[in-house]
Amino acid sequence: xxxGSTHFNGSTQVTAVIDDEENEELEVANQVGRxxxxxxxxxxxxxxxxxxxxxxxxxxxxxxxxxxxKKMNEYRIDYKEKYSIIxxxxxxxxxxxxxxxxxxxGEVMLMGHLRSKGIDVxxxxxxxxIHRVDPVGVEERKANGIKRRVYEVPHPNFIWHIDxxxxxxxxxxxxxxxxxxxxxxxxxxxCSDNNKSQTVVxxxxxxxxEFGMPKHVRTDHGGENVGxxxxxxxxxxxxxxxxxx
Length: 245
Hints:
By secondary structure, this protein is an alpha/beta fold. It has helices at residues 10-29, 41-49, 54-61, 65-74, 88-101, 107-116, 123-133, 135-143, 197-211, 226-236; strands spanning 159-165, 174-180, 186-192, 216-218, 243-244. InterPro entries: Homeodomain-like_sf (IPR009057), Integrase_cat-core (IPR001584), Integrase_dom_put (IPR058913), RNaseH-like_sf (IPR012337), RNaseH_sf (IPR036397).
């Protein structure tokens, strides 16, 4: 063997590997809490460029919003960089130009047009700008909004709404439910392994024994409701319209 050279046999190498593994295990054991998530500045800036909210960015990175804010402070990322620096007059003029091409558009579509021009502002600022630029259009859109139907039921057991969910039927899981239209009481709710009429009418009969017979029921046209229809017509006859479909 040459002078000054060092020779390691197999036993020494194995011992060194074992020592390294033990040191790694010791380091992990000494950690407090769950392992930290590695988040780089580039990851945050790329997600900010996608115009995601801070809550969405935190969810994507697998951290809480407080941790996200700490990382942004650490990397000197300004919170306000997410929004464009633009005056109210400039914003109003840009919206007027967009309205010249397409006047009847809502807040979300207008936000998309602004972002296509590289302008991103808070929803509150956009809403205020729309009121300044087009106050008449705002009132017109309010007047033409969706009118909700009034749902009125005079008393409990006047009508039960009955339906089933069949999305998991491939796994032999079918959910059947009935709810009282007046009180919103769930009169029956069960997950069964089939969608047979006999199963549904048994649930209905158990519910009527506990809560009483409804005057009407509303169902879809599914064959699983045939037993309920028969029960209702036998109880009230054809003239009283006991079944709505």
